[in-house]
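quick one before i forget lol
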Amino acid sequence: MQYEEQYIFVFASNYHGYYIEELLKRHNIKCTLRKAPRAVGKSCNTAIYISEKDLEKAVGLIKQGKTTYQGLYKISIAADHTTEYVKINM
């Protein structure tokens, strides 16, 4: 099943990313763990990509957990077809 990834959570370490990926999947939230884009993270940062429909539930689960994220970004495509990352405060 295809879904559109519209938001990313950026984590300081791979461990945090793996932990949150597993937490979200246990709660039936579709997500993808990948390396964070250079525009929002250093080379060692990981990111979890999720769709808008799961955003609020994911934020709630992460806040209940023992891990925090470095940033939450909305992915948008600019008029010139470049990808932009807009930081969201939640």
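fyi The first strand starts at residue 7 and ends at 11.
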